[in-house]
Amino acid sequence: MLTKRIIPCLDIKDGRTVKGINFVNLRDAGDPVELASAYAEQGADELVFLDISATQEERKTLSKLVKEIALHINIPFTVGGGISSVHDVAPLLEAGADKVSVNSSAVRKPELIDDLSRAFGAQCIVLAVDARKIDNAWIVHTHGGKNPTEKKLFSWVKEGQERGAGEILFTSMNHDGTKNGYAIDPLSKLYELLTIPVIASGGAGTMGHFADVFTLGKADAALAASVFHFGEIKIPELKQFLSKHQIPVRL
Question: I need a surface site. Which of 7, 11, 135, 232 has the fewest CB within 10 A?
Fold first, then answer.
């Protein structure tokens, strides 16, 4: 079995890290560069940075932030938010990002995934999918979870894989920030459906939830935010716990 990855997520708004519940009620969680540096030292396998209020002006700000973060960490990191063309990606990679994440812009223009994959390689492209379960169907949402679309989770991720995404980041909006555990059922279905890695997001509250997402949900990586930002779970202790439960992690 491949080593499972632990990935802290930093949602960036106006240069600060923020965290909410079910995508609303955001509160400040600290300086992104300080948090990134601390997580790298604690043994995080990767980091994800999402500019949740990205505009064209902030794109330049984000490049500066990426450059600063790259100076402080030695682990791979993914940057997303407001990426809508091949031209948006090169500055972020040049600044030090290893991968980019696309979400709303890919839903609006699915061929963007093909373009990015051709230009930079599938290993560089993460398709982020925010979905909410409504009447027994997982409905894809865009614009930070504000806008429901006609796309369904399972058909959309399959299309994303076929178009050249190298990884799927699935966030359950129903579970986000609740600390009640990850969305195990859809995650196990994604495992059956896809051949590319799946990062699980939304719902981490205990170390047991991480064990469940790897064993029952079959996720390749688990992403979390508030439990790390507010010190409720420490990454070294989490990895020791997982290792004791026969889940392969990088110690």
Answer: 135
Q: What is the CATH number of domain 5-244?
A: 3.20.20.70
Residue 26's pLDDT band (cuts 50, 70, 90): low
Q: Where are the domains of the chain?
A: 5-244
The 8 Å CB, 24+ separation contacts for 197-201 are: 197/166, 197/167, 197/168, 197/221, 198/167, 198/168, 198/170, 199/5, 199/7, 199/48, 199/126, 199/167, 199/168, 199/169, 199/170, 199/223, 200/170, 201/9, 201/169, 201/170, 201/171, 201/172, 201/176
- Catalytic amino acids? 11, 130
R_g of the chain computed on alpha carbons = 16
Higher per-residue confidence, 195 vs 230: 195
Residue 51's pLDDT band (cuts 50, 70, 90): confident
